[in-house]
Amino acid sequence: MLIITLSYGQLPFTYDFTREMIETYRDQVDHIIVSTHNTMVGSRYGNIRERVVEAYDTSEGDQQFLLVHSDYRQLFADNDVIYVAGHEHQYLRSLVSGYYGGHYTELVSGSASYKGYDSRYGESELIQSMLMVKINDGSSGSLDVNASILSFEGDLVDYRSYYEAHTITRNEDGMRELAQPDWKLIDRFTRTAERCDKIVYPSSIPASNQLNMTHDKSYRTSACVSANGFSARILDGENAIFNRYDTRTRTTNFEPGVSTAKSNAELAARYFRYLHIPHASYSPNLNNSQRVRLINQGTADEEVEIRETTIDLKKQVSLSWVPPYEGAESDVLIVSGIQGQDGTYSSAKGVMKNIQADVGFAGSFGDGSERGKQPVTLPNDRVNSNSILDDDARGDDFVLQFNLPAVAEAESLTLGRWNTETEGWDPVVAADCISAASYDSSYLTDLPADVPQSCETAAGMVTVGAGYAWARLQKDGAYALIVR
Predict the structure, then answer these.
(1) CB distance 37 to 47 below 8 Å
(2) Residues 446/450/452/455 CA torsion (nearest 10 deg)
(3) Which of 19, 256, 292, 438 could form a disulfide with 271 if both were Cys (CB 3.0 to 4.6 A apart)?
């Protein structure tokens, strides 16, 4: 593992050093972490917003960062960097796109102080996919402290992020709740360096915007093949359990003789060039129909407004292969990212709202109209919508297909899920619940006709043609072929 730590405020001047370190050690490590104080994109500040969009001609750092920011993004994307920052006093995980393609992970963690910040701008949808947000500016009567842990084993990384609420606002308050913290899990992922990723959009996006798989709410993936030739994919399911959050309106303006932008119109254009998408029928902005706009145009009060809006989170679904665990008859597939949100809806200050009842801000529906995001119906008895993942029973339904090796004896195999408590394999269904039918989309909600209707879930073992096992599942985890 390579860890590169950059001093506070020095990101504009350390590109050559960072690139040299990555190029020197890339072939010797599985994982690369770049750590610094400021976010690259973030949600409230972000170097690209502050040093590129809002750049000053009078700032050496701004002008230098203008030359390297796109190179940083592509360097990090090409090398699957995990970029760790703080500064924003809230928890964020997002994917930031490279300038030419790919993406890297940005983690914003910590919040270990006497203050919390609200959500200003939210997702910069042109270059950012927001995967998790936890906001608390103190309006609820408490603040958050956040602890995030990256655990590495070979090319496998397991990530967990926790929070605890507290009422400490000065040194004299002592430890209070943090003397014996009750850490609550708010975010997680497990993946290998070599993996198959998909960004999955929430099912709330308007049907008219689901164009050419650009905005895909389905968990369905392409085949993901292990080094030993095992192949699996997600066949079916959609992202119906997702989080939502609000931002607040912000205004800004150019400064004559100081700003790189020479007018407010040019400043607005820079927002669209670097961070946001202007809504069009062929390129919809799912976050707001007027994400950035000029107000009071032509008057002394003219400003650029970044409009308050409501944003639904995306998911990064990862399929990763690892060598067989004891008792497995195949390589092990780790499914991560489906069971990572719980339907939480928070205001820009972090106050809980109800995603099943509350309407989002005007213009946030995603179809170019002034409608707000609409309430959604969550599946029953699965999640508690409280920003805590530990207490959620299940996630969305999805169907996993696991191809059988050519020499496999299908009647002796079934699909199993690794039980971390017993450290053994559990079959995903009982033997008499394994259908002989090929998968059909109706099995996402129903059972095949050739199994008892008392079976808890649908599953099958197909032996005609290219054989495969399939099963309707509801949990992330490690899966493999096991002896029936």
Answers:
(1) no
(2) -50
(3) 292
Q: How far is CA 45 from the centre of its chain?
A: 19
Domain boundaries, given as residue ranges, for the chain: 2-193+239-245+311-317+344-353, 398-483
* Diameter over CA atoms, the chain: 78
Residues 366, 205: contact at Cβ < 8 Å? yes
The arithmetic mean of pLDDT across residues 328-345, rounded, is 97
Residue type, 206: P
pTM for this one?
Answer: 0.96
> What is the model's pLDDT at position 212?
52
φ and ψ of 24, to 5 deg: -70, -40
Structure tokens at 119: 């959500």
Mapped onto helix, strand or coil, the DSSP state of residue 99 is coil
Burial bucket for residue 141 (CB in 10 Å: 0-12, 13-18, 19+): exposed
CA 200 to chain centre: 9
Asked if residue 216 lies in contact with residue 236, where contact means CB atoms within 8 angstroms, the answer is: no
The residues, ordered by sequence, that sit 6+ positions from 212 with a Cβ below 8 Å of its Cβ are none
For residue 124, give the amino acid letter. S
Contact 121/249 with Cβ under 8 angstroms?
A: no
Contacts of 50 (CB under 8 A, 6+ apart): none
What is the pLDDT confidence band of residue 258, given thresholds at 50, 70 and 90? very high
Q: Would you call 18 helix, strand, or coil by DSSP?
A: helix
| Percentages (nearest 5) of helix, strand, coil residues in the chain | 15, 30, 55
Q: Give the Cβ contact number of residue 94 at 10 Å.
A: 28
Distance between CA 146 and CA 90 in Å, rounded? 8
Instruction: For residue 34, give the nearest of 15, 61, 53 by alpha carbon.
Output: 15
Predicted pLDDT at 410: 85
Which residue in 227, 456, 232, 434 sits closest to 335, CA to CA? Answer: 232
In the 8-state DSSP scheme, what is residue 318?
A: E
Residue indicated by tokens 């392409």 = 222
Instruction: For residue 165, give the nearest of 140, 187, 190 by alpha carbon.
Output: 140
Amino acid identity, residue 421?
Answer: E
The CA distance from 381 to 362, in Å, is 31
pLDDT of residue 88: 92
Q: What is the pLDDT of residues 261-305, one digit of tens each?
A: 999 999 999 999 999 999 998 889 999 999 999 999 999 999 999
Q: Which amino acid is residue 61, in one-letter code? A: G
pLDDT band at 466 (very low <50, low <70, confident <90, very high): confident
Handedness of CA 412, 415, 420, 421 (dihedral sign): negative
Residues near 339 by Cβ (< 8 Å), separated by ≥ 6? 389, 392, 394, 395, 396, 474, 475, 476
Residue position matching structure tokens 């490690």: 478
Confidence category of residue 213, pLDDT binned at 50, 70, 90: low
CB contact at 8 A, 139 and 351? yes
